[in-house]
Amino acid sequence: SDIGSQKERVVTEEEWLQKWEMGNIGFHKEQGHPLLQKYLDVLLNGRSGLRIFFPLCGKAVEMKWLADMGHSVVGVEVSEQAVKEFFSEHSLPYYEEPVPEITGAKMFQSTSGNISLYCCSIYDLSSSIVGKFDGVWDRGALVAVNPCDRQRYASLMINLVEKNSSYLLVTVSYDPNKHKGPPFYVPESEIKSLFG
């Protein structure tokens, strides 16, 4: 499970914010991800009215899609620009309020109440702040997390899910010696050791 030169690579919060400011967001998909559509039944598992978590959500269009199906969506994103673009691109009215437990954090919520996006570091969240989730759509989060933070990330995610939750995870496969990431290469063996 050699991840090559990526092991030491660190992308700072400032670098992510800069990507959004510069419009360097090739990771954003204008259309919903085909794998979510393909595996939606696995995520929902015959259930309705779920609480679904989007780690490092950006302005993922799938958040509106799932909310329109009657689910409650919670996301976390470090870029306030991304969060505001999500609401404006979908013409969704929203309000913002501070998150008392997290210095400098804001929560942006659709006025309909079914989409709540936290603008802060994901590592500042806990189940006491955001509650627990029935499902997770991790399309670009684990592969964006710095390799040195993966264990911390996985522990947080395990802490945020209910016992019978569904976790959909998308990773990318390539030779990590030829690409410095992100997205980072996460070998299947590491996914198993992180999530069990």
UniProtKB/TrEMBL annotation:
Its EC number is 2.1.1.67. It catalyses: S-adenosyl-L-methionine + a thiopurine = S-adenosyl-L-homocysteine + a thiopurine S-methylether. It is found in: Cytoplasm. Gene3D superfamilies: Vaccinia Virus protein VP39. GO terms for cellular component: cytoplasm. One of its GO terms (molecular function) is thiopurine S-methyltransferase activity. Keywords: Cytoplasm, Methyltransferase, S-adenosyl-L-methionine, Transferase. S-adenosyl-L-methionine binds at residues 16-27, 56, 77, 121-122, 139. The keyword Methyltransferase applies. InterPro entries: SAM-dependent_MTases_sf (IPR029063), Thiopurine_S-MeTrfase (IPR025835), TPMT (IPR008854). GO terms for biological process: methylation. Belongs to the class I-like SAM-binding methyltransferase superfamily. TPMT family. This is thiopurine S-methyltransferase. The gene is Tpmt.
